[in-house]
UniProtKB/TrEMBL annotation:
This is DDE Tnp4 domain-containing protein. Residues 153-303 form the DDE Tnp4 domain. One of its GO terms (molecular function) is hydrolase activity. InterPro entries: HARBI1-like, HARBI1_dom. One of its GO terms (cellular component) is nucleus. Belongs to the HARBI1 family. Its cofactor is a divalent metal cation.
Amino acid sequence: MDLFSDESDNEMYEIGVFDSEGIVDTENRRLYNRINYRSEFSDSEFTYRFRLNKTSVDELLLKITPSLKVISSRNNGISPLHQLLLTLRFYALGTMLLSVADFIGVSKASASRIVHHVSRAIAGLYPQYVKTLSNTQNAFHEIAGFPRILGAIDCTHVPIQSPDSNIGEEYRNRKGIFSMNVQGVCNADLLFMNVVARWPGSAHDATIFNNSRLKMQCEEGLFGNRWLIGDSAYPCTSYLLIPLLNPTSVAENHYNEAHIKTRNTIERCFGVWKRRFPILSLKIRVAMQTTQAIIIATSVLHNICRLNNIRDVDPEVAMPQESGDITYAEGIGQQNHSVRQQLINNYFSV
């Protein structure tokens, strides 16, 4: 039966429990109270709980609804709005599925299916929201005077549960934690322009880049004379600049100082992303395909938040911070220091 409250537009759905003979056990029926959170909360309360404001949720819902469906034809099913809110709440809490299932008013099994389908639907918006921009160099130049920067690149680890006893060790990173090593590139406004979420935690940052489509595009000259800027985990090339390990001259020190300040944007981008969606810092406990979809989906949502000026979330608790340890890329990929040295001599020596 369906019960509606005139005051809050809440919905209560009755779920039958069947006995051994297939007859509904009316004494043990479970009621799920499905609240209309859109009318229940103010815009600020809504944004704090779901990380997107009501307007952004409405716009997102229009784009992903064709990829969703009502989970069940019984008891009016689970609406696309409730499916989206459940998934957003899961990203915002980074907790067990049962907690968000109770919050929305569905079973744990339904919550698992919803998170999978909605994450894939949002991840499908990646080409619309996560893309290389053409006007990045001016904003980067304003940070520390570093010229012609396309984007800042780095990798970050997203903790996961061990995926499988046979391949689990591939996902154990150098700290002994199971994780995905995720590559990201951002602009000076902390917008993601590239995200790669398919490599295990044991993979080296340079290995991920060397096997990426982004590297192929750089080698083909698709981005003109603009550079990526990364740390010493990457090889120094004609299109990717890294810091000097042992600067000796004034110009080399100026180069390193500008490099560090400019490259810091990707560290800040990862920090904002993970604070907004704590599931990325806490251990993700879902299937591998869903984990990959969640990482891409949250990068899309991060860009939506930045584009709509939705304020960054202040964490109630400190999020785990990654160590600054770097595994240097010596021997990984072809090194080319001539472009970097030419830049130092012609630009930073002035």
